[in-house]
Amino acid sequence: MKIKELTQYLESIAPLAYQESYDNSGLLVGDPNDEIQKALISLDCTEAVVDEAIAKGCDLIISHHPIVFKGLKKFNNKNYVERTVIKAIKNNIALYAIHTNLDNVFGGVNSKIAEKLGLINTAILSPKKNQLKKLVVYVPRASVEEVREALFEAGAGSIGDYDECSFNSAGYGTFRPLAGANPTIGQIGEQERVEETKIEVVYSGIREREILLAMFAAHPYEEVSYQIVTLENSIASIGAGIIGNLATPLSPTDFLAYIKDGLKLNCIRHTKLIDTKIERVAICGGAGGFLLADAKRSGADVFITADYKYHEFFDAEDELIIADIGHFESEQFTQELLLDIIQKKFATFAVLLTEIDTNPIKYYC
């Protein structure tokens, strides 16, 4: 199949619009119209992973972390980033990254960690705001059903577990066509009064182009009167981190042993063990210190994440336990997640997991 067939499917699950501003997810190297036969999945894209792709006949590498975060002005093999990109290009291997956009969806990276720990009643820890918008459009009474259905078919009107949601109010509109206009209703130079319905629908901002095109196509007026409002409402399925419960509460020491075994950890850096049973667990794969306040507000007994600095551990203030399990370790199951996602959709497409340990941190225990 073509690269774009696979990447469009991945982006239907984790849209690029959900990535953080500093990120660089998407197709980094390659032509979306190129045919691919086999893909290699890895947490990181390194020279060794490109060598592995060459050896195994893979023409696409799908990594969680982008090999390129910042703009490159020169390609002269001076560092591992440039060498990796050059080697991929020379060997006609496409590079695709699915990073914070996969972090920020329910069912993504953090959900996979929660699954490994057997957490129940999971939810996004910090839902994103400003992702929802409201469209208000004024439609002549005879065309209301047609316009409303077009909006629904394009993806507007979905709220949680409900779809085809709208609010409709009756009124009338006035307008006067000027010279050069081609009005559906009314005459040039004469004010027209028309019975209209105001349709209001909520939609995800990533669907805006399709929804507006559908509205314009279905609406009978030459000039469509509409408004778009960005909403503060959060989307429960989009955002950072995961919160959930253990089926059976554990003592702090038993819990640390539990996650060390369940997440295949070498070691755990943690704050002082507080005198409480561990039941409510907050998780953020990778560097998640920015979610500590959210973890506390959620009532978490422990916050599992990575990349904590010395002074940041003091911020626990004995309100919960911070467990730093390592960046690679917290996200290692993303490879398994991506494999499952792809194989469920493209059962006959060849996709492999890397055999390279890309973790740059080694432990002497």
UniProtKB/TrEMBL annotation:
<comment type="subunit">
    <text>Homohexamer.</text>
</comment>
<keyword id="KW-0479">Metal-binding</keyword>
<feature type="binding site">
    <location>
        <position position="64"/>
    </location>
    <ligand>
        <name>a divalent metal cation 2</name>
    </ligand>
</feature>
<dbReference type="GO" id="GO:0005737">
    <property type="term" value="C:cytoplasm"/>
</dbReference>
<protein>
    <recommendedName>
        <fullName>GTP cyclohydrolase 1 type 2 homolog</fullName>
    </recommendedName>
</protein>
<dbReference type="Pfam" id="PF01784">
    <property type="entry name" value="DUF34_NIF3"/>
</dbReference>
<feature type="binding site">
    <location>
        <position position="103"/>
    </location>
    <ligand>
        <name>a divalent metal cation 1</name>
    </ligand>
</feature>
<comment type="similarity">
    <text>Belongs to the GTP cyclohydrolase I type 2/NIF3 family.</text>
</comment>
<dbReference type="InterPro" id="IPR017221">
    <property type="entry name" value="DUF34/NIF3_bac"/>
</dbReference>
<dbReference type="InterPro" id="IPR015867">
    <property type="entry name" value="N-reg_PII/ATP_PRibTrfase_C"/>
</dbReference>
<feature type="binding site">
    <location>
        <position position="331"/>
    </location>
    <ligand>
        <name>a divalent metal cation 1</name>
    </ligand>
</feature>
<dbReference type="InterPro" id="IPR036069">
    <property type="entry name" value="DUF34/NIF3_sf"/>
</dbReference>
<feature type="binding site">
    <location>
        <position position="65"/>
    </location>
    <ligand>
        <name>a divalent metal cation 1</name>
    </ligand>
</feature>
<dbReference type="InterPro" id="IPR002678">
    <property type="entry name" value="DUF34/NIF3"/>
</dbReference>
<dbReference type="GO" id="GO:0046872">
    <property type="term" value="F:metal ion binding"/>
</dbReference>
<feature type="binding site">
    <location>
        <position position="327"/>
    </location>
    <ligand>
        <name>a divalent metal cation 1</name>
    </ligand>
</feature>
